[in-house]
Amino acid sequence: MKKSFTYIQNALIVMKVLHKGFDDTKYIAWMSKVNEEYDYLLKHISFWVNSNVKSLAEPLRSALTKQKFIIKNVKSNMHYTVFIHAKIKKASAYGFTLARSEISFVTKNYKGEVLGENVIHVTGQSSQGYEIARQNLVKKLHSLIQKEGISKVLNIGI
Questions:
Q1: Between 3.30.390.30, 3.30.499.10, 3.40.50.10490, 3.30.160.150, what CATH number should domain 46-154 receive?
Q2: Is the pTM of this model over 0.85?
Q3: Do the beta carbons of residue 144 and residue 154 sit within 8 Å?
C-alpha cells in the first residue's frame, strides 16, 4: 500500500483541481495511519537465516537488511526464520569447474508454520578451481536476489 502513495497523492491533487470542494482529509489521515503501522512493523519484524552452507545465508541477510528488517534470532510473534538447504555438486565442462546447486528456501513464522517455499538452481563457475566456483555461486545468488527481489526468491510477500 505504501508504494501506491505517490499515485494516491497525485490523484488527490488532481481531484482538488477538478473539484474545488473535494475534501482529502480522510485520505491523508488514512495514509498517515498506514505509514505509522508500516513503521511499527518495520521496527518489530525480525528474521533469522539458517543454512547448511553458511556462505549462502549472507546474500539473503544482506537483502533483508537492505529492506530494513531486523536480523536476529529471537522469540516473538513477528519473527520469521528462513531455512536454506543447498545441494551442491562439482562438475567440469569446457575447462571450467562448476558448482551446480539446488537451493531450497523455506520461510516459517514463530509457530513453525510454513509461509513460503521455493527451489532455485544456480551454477557457479571458475577456471581456477572448485572453491572459486562456489564463491561464484554465492555471487550469482546475490545477483539473482538483487534482480528478482527477495519476495520472489523466498516466494513470500514482503
A1: 3.30.160.150
A2: no
A3: no
